[in-house]
């Protein structure tokens, strides 16, 4: 619960979010697929 309770949440217009995602190079981790999403991006983060 500590991870959930201290997680950051940011609201922004869709076009700004799309720019952030493009610059970052990967989509946000989706709650309903957190483990799968994390495992998909982890190698690109050098972890």
Determine the fraction of residues in helical runs and give it as a percent range: 40-55%
Q: Helix/strand-derived class? A: mainly alpha
Number of domains: 1
Q: Give the overall shape, derived from the CA principal axes.
A: globular
Query: Biggest β-sheet, characterized?
Result: none
Mean pLDDT across residues: 88
Number of β-strand runs: 0
SSE layout:
Elements: H1 2-6, H2 14-24, H3 34-41
Short description:
The protein is mainly alpha-helical and 47 residues long. It has helices spanning 2-6, 14-24, 34-41.
Write a structural description.
- 51% of the residues lie in helices and 0% in strands.
- It is globular.
- It is an all-alpha fold and 47 residues long.
- It has helices at residues 2-6, 14-24, 34-41.
- It has one domain (2-45).
- The longest helix is centred in the middle third of the chain and has 11 residues, at 14-24.
- The chain has 3 helices and no strands.
What are the main properties of this structure?
single chain, 3 helices, mainly alpha, 51% helix, 47 residues
């Amino acid at each position: 619960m500590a991870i959930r309770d201290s997680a950051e949440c940011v609201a922004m217009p869709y076009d700004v979010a799309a720019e952030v995602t493009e610059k970052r190079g990967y989509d946000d981790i989706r709650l309903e697929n957190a483990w799968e999403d994390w495992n998909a991006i982890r190698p690109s983060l050098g972890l």
